[in-house]
Design a protein that fits this description.
The complex is a heterodimer of chains A (193) and B (187).
Chain A: H1 6-14, H2 19-31, H3 33-50, H4 61-68, H5 73-77, H6 79-102, H7 106-191
Helix pairs in contact in A: 2-3
Chain B: H1 3-12, H2 16-38, H3 41-57, H4 68-87, H5 115-133, H6 138-148, H7 154-161, H8 165-186
Helix pairs in contact in B: 1-2, 2-3, 2-4, 3-4, 4-7, 5-8, 6-8, 7-8
Classes of the chains: A mainly alpha (193), B mainly alpha (187).
Chain lengths: 193, 187
């Protein structure tokens, strides 16, 4: 056997070779000092690798990680409930603060708030209803106009026949093209210094 | 159910002590991996914190059919990739196979006959390996560290990196060749 190629030697150390090939390599290594040294070198490196010193982790590491975590996973999943309760409590505190500072009855305050809300609703609802009616009328109008246009086009087509209609469309297209190019030319002439 | 899975289940139920147990169990291997990848202890510790926080946030995506360590190191590996992207570390073309100059006489290590001499050699070699590792391209170094420092199997590394087992093996061998070459240069 010739000297063991490097990749075979790696596979041998990984235990990836079949028994017969392993024995062949072992027999060769016995006889070949260069391959023996190479194999020993590899073993030494692997041993050094598996015994590399650990990087010191400070004793408070886990506590530092825990400090960065959210309060609890349950808190996160019931977050909406906690927010709602907090909001309600904040409202109560605000009402109580108002009562303590002004001396006004909380019921009066709630009553005036309710009136304001009702006034706002009574103003905005009729306005929204009128806007809705206007939009509805506009939609009907556009729809009727579209139908009338389609009908008149259809009667025109039946009057002139398909040949004349095709000719008319062709002439319209040619006129449109001429107009576009003419305008473009006028613009480009006007744009020259 | 393994111990890890039970701890994860408890942590999912809001038991912070269970997650602390997970941290204590994996902090050392994770910091060792990150330390060898970044070459800086402080950065490794910061990254390890970030990775545990990320793991906690996505704990419900962990599937108990996998090993917890594999899942955690997948997060760590993605964290390292983000770090390299931010630092704009040039990527090595992994399609270009390393052609190690194996015919050149190897590193000059004396024939280890006595155990004392071997111990000394090992200590010296470890120091040189730490230096040499930093000179290996990051992508190869990662696979090499996962295999030889973190001691994952090739199948587990393939799962962590989302690569075929054969590719992982090939690249780890490439990294070994490079390491040997670097060791010759470091010595």
């Amino acid at each position: 056997m010739t000297c063991v190629p490097p990749d075979r030697m790696d596979l041998y150390l990984e235990g990836d070779l079949a028994g017969a090939e392993c024995r062949e390599i072992e027999a060769h290594v016995e006889r070949c000092p260069e391959c023996r040294r190479a194999l020993e070198r590899r073993r030494l490196i692997e041993e050094a690798l598996s015994s590399l010193p650990a990087i010191e982790v400070p004793s408070g590491f886990a506590a530092a990680v825990l400090d960065r975590l959210p309060l609890s996973r349950r808190t996160a999943s019931f977050g909406w409930f906690i927010s709602a309760v907090t909001g309600f409590l904040a409202l109560l505190a605000a009402l109580l603060g108002y009562y303590l500072s002004t001396g006004e009855s909380l019921l009066d305050l709630l009553d005036s708030m309710g009136r304001s809300v009702l006034a706002f609703i009574s103003l905005t609802v009729p306005l929204a209803a009128k806007v809705f009616c206007l939009v509805r009328v506009a939609v009907f109008l556009v729809g009727d106009l579209g139908t009338a246009l389609a009908r008149s086009l259809s009667s025109f087509a039946s009057l002139v026949g398909p040949e004349l209609l095709a000719l008319g469309l062709l002439l319209s297209a040619a006129l449109a093209a001429l107009t576009i190019f003419g305008v473009k030319r006028i613009l480009s002439l006007g744009g020259k210094p | 159910m393994t111990d890890d899975r039970r701890l994860v289940q408890k942590a999912l139920e809001g038991d912070r002590k269970a997650f602390e147990m997970i941290i204590l169990r994996y902090q050392q291997p994770l910091v060792n991996y990150l330390g060898r990848m970044t070459g800086e202890r402080e950065t490794a510790l910061d990254f390890a914190q970030d990775i545990f926080v990320k793991a906690y946030a996505s704990l419900d995506s962990y599937r108990p059919s996998y090993r917890f360590a594999t899942w955690l190191f997948k997060i760590a590996s993605n964290h390292m990739i983000d770090h390299w992207r931010k630092k704009k570390i040039p990527a090595l073309s992994l399609d270009t196979a390393y052609r190690g100059d194996e015919s050149v006489p190897g590193i000059q290590i004396e024939d280890p006959e006595a155990s004392v001499a071997r111990g000394y050699e090992l200590a010296e070699l470890r120091a040189r390996i730490e230096t040499a590792l930093e000179r290996i391209p990051a992508e190869l170094r990662e696979l090499f560290v996962l295999r030889h420092v973190s001691e994952f199997s090739y199948e587990e590394i393939a799962e962590i990196k989302g690569l075929p087992v054969g590719t992982v093996k090939n690249r780890v061998f490439q990294a070994k060749g490079l390491l040997r070459r670097e060791l010759r240069e470091v010595s």
